[in-house]
């Protein structure tokens, strides 16, 4: 049996969520990583930009560890949802580089603080805004995994690609015809039940 190392375990799951989210951009055109595919505008590059903001806030400001860069999309005067899409003057490379710098900053916070280090989430209600690094790691992992799930669905709508990670789609074997038949079966079952 492998002994648990709580901080290392949490960091591994955090990195897994990051990797899953970033992988969904691979091999797509500039248009396809930006294309809104839901009625609320969800898009792949916007999810990565938002994830950077999540980590910046929770592993930076919460623990009094300033990032050292001004990022307008995450400022108090940013327009609503500015962190959820890339403007035409923000390249994919810009956003991926920002994401990398933010995750390096977050990883430094995690490395330097004990799991019981106390921080304050300024945008949470007073009665629950005092937190530990452990709580924030769990919170951010669940948030990033949620967004990785969004990215799974968005990517499937963009080009049909599905899967857990590069080289391991974790899906039942089946070609397009098999999946079309499977979907039709589910549609019939839904209609019959409804």
Highlighted features:
single chain, 194 residues, mainly alpha
Write a structural description:
By secondary structure, this protein is mainly α. The protein is 54% helix and 3% strand. It is built from 6 helices and 2 strands. Helix 3 runs parallel beside helix 4. The longest helix is centred in the C-terminal third of the chain and has 27 residues. The protein is globular and about 55 Å long.
User: Using only CA atoms, what is the Rg?
Assistant: 19 Å
Mean pLDDT: 92
Along the chain, the helix and strand elements come as HHHHEEHH
The total count of strands amounts to: 2
Identify the strand order in the major beta sheet.
1-2
| Overall 3D form | globular
SS class? mainly alpha
What fraction of residues sit in β-strands? under 5%
What is the distance, rounded to the nearest whole angstrom, between the alpha carbons of the first and last residues? 48 Å
Low-confidence stretches: none
The helix tally amounts to 6
In helices, the fraction of residues equals 40-55%
Largest sheet composition = 2 strands, antiparallel
Can you give me a brief rundown of this structure?
This protein has 194 residues and is mainly alpha-helical. It is built from 6 helices and 2 strands. It is globular.
